[in-house]
Amino acid sequence: MSVNKKLVRTQFRHAVFQRDGYRCRCCAKPGKDRQGDELHQKFHKDPNPVDLDSHHICDRSLMPFGGYVKENGVSLCDECHFKAEAHWNKLTTPDPDFSPEKLYELIGSSLEAAELASMELDES
Fold this sequence. Notes:
Blueprint: H1 3-19, E1 31-33, E2 50-56, E3 73-77, H2 78-89, H3 100-107, H4 111-119
Parallel strand pairs: 1-2
Antiparallel strand pairs: 2-3
């Protein structure tokens, strides 16, 4: 993986977690980046934060330049992440509260906004 791609991924994670205050946007559990760092401590002092993922609302393969923009990301704990992934993997019946449309609404974004922001990655 190129250094630039690693940087884009790291910036995506940090932007999503910071916007969401290092909390799962669906259940509001305080969390920390599962890939490590202590940046969550600026947002909460919970002694047992859950692991968070920066979930791509629209699959990376369907977005320009991978969709590594906060307009396409949401902080989710493992339990909520599993429910959101059900909309893409079709292994379980998807919960409508975790649909891409609902997740975009939750963060004040949309597929169109995410695509536009993602297009700007080409310029960086």
